[in-house]
Amino acid sequence: MFRRREAVPFAFVAEAESFRSNVAPPPRQRASTSELVSRTLIGLTVAAGFTGALLFGLPSLDTNQSSGHTQQSEASQGR
What we know:
Largest sheet: none
Order of helices and strands: HH
Oligomer: single chain
């Protein structure tokens, strides 16, 4: 097959830095009071959920045997 070779002008790549846009994006809108309150309530709800899960989960992770719950097998009763 015949392949046509052409010189590729790379000058446009070197000049690309000079053609950057001078248009600034619009400023971000500030969050309204209701949005701030809702974000705060959601954050507090998530934090309370983690805290509750930790408080309810810690007793089940405790490795110490409490005196009220002793485990005895039938083999230890000396039958």
